[in-house]
Predict the structure.
Amino acid sequence: MCDLMPASQPAEKIGKMKKLRRTLSESFRNIAFKKEDISFDEICVTKMSTRGCQGTDSVIKPLDTIPEDKKVRVQRTQSGFDPFEKPASQVKRVHSENNACINAKSSSTSKESPKLRRHSSPSSPTSPKFGKADSYEKLEKLGEGSYATVYKGKSKVNGKLVALKVIRLQEEEGTPFTAIREASLLKGLKHSNIVLLHDIIHTKETLTLVFEYVHTDLCQYMDKHPGGLHPDNVKLFLFQLLRGLSYIHQRYILHRDLKPQNLLISDTGELKLADFGLARAKSVPSHTYSNEVVTLWYRPPDVLLGSTDYSTCLDMWGVGCIFIEMIQGVAAFPGMKDIQDQLERIFLVLGTPTEDTWPGVNSLPHFKPDRFTVYSAKKLRQAWNKLGYVDHAEELASRFLQCFPKNRLSAQVALNHDYFSNLPPRLWELQDMSSIFTVPNVKLQTESGDSIQVCARRNSHGMASSGSKH
């Protein structure tokens, strides 16, 4: 392609072509972009006029979507290669196209967006950057725990709202292991139903985890709509909870602290698993774990009886409790005294276990048959009547609330239960980072009741303070 002109052309035409060549080469050098500047693709990919880069209603495609036989031409144009490697007719067209793009850039960026400004000019040493303590502004305190305080904040980099979990570091104790665990697990979890960890900031005094901001949680949502949620909304919330759990369980991660306060609800209705401070990556073969996990109301009977050999079935008991609470409007097993009281409430509905109904129960550390009243199992709708109003709800709840851990339904299997049979099939085809609300006709229904109540704080045993609806 280097030999563009036939030998028989007059010398004056060759001279004009050389002059044009120099002119075009200079033009291409002037529009060659540095590595840190905005790319040619970013300019042309914006919506152009009908006389834009590629004609009517078209845009430049990113390089990885351009057919292989056309990539070389685009790459050479962008990197300032000599355009005379093409036929003269193509050169003239490319030159005019690039002029169109440059003119479009100058007119469309007279009011430059923050994104374009950040790319088109080198950052000053004092500009806010991710990973820096001064990159976020604290707006208000959202809550405080034994080792961390959570603030609503705003990023100075992009202006977005964030949640800042500020963990206090004590010199003699170092970084709390729960914070290290939470950060290490969340860095690798990318799912629409799991809260997103944006940034980690480490200073001498604090470790700050920067999360996406989600304005409420399931506890507050249920307090705002007392008496049970709309059945269709319960179904969508449960489907999202199971999506998130299926994702982490397939990666051998247990949440270990499922409760309504740890399920965030966005303003669009997305449910997101949060607070992975007690989560564990379960290795194979299994280890034994602490039985001091899961808030008391949502703790399964095997853990209450001292079992430390558990798997994903631990989380599935909590799913059953939350499912019933969303439908009925009250906690399934609101123990108010101690572990003994909690177990009595469970056995009152599900029946006191025996070796026949729960193989191995007699070997659990805290199971003494003479300490418990003998109850026979009941139908769940006798304890929670609203389960009977929704097709397949009682059967699904009973599959979660099994005293014998191995009988509990897994998250993946539960997603295919008949309870969800009237949902759009596309929900099962979504990519991990796609929200269920991207599927047409999937939306939350208007809830009855609009009174707002403050969600009661629970202590480490899940017992509510005064003023709780529970």
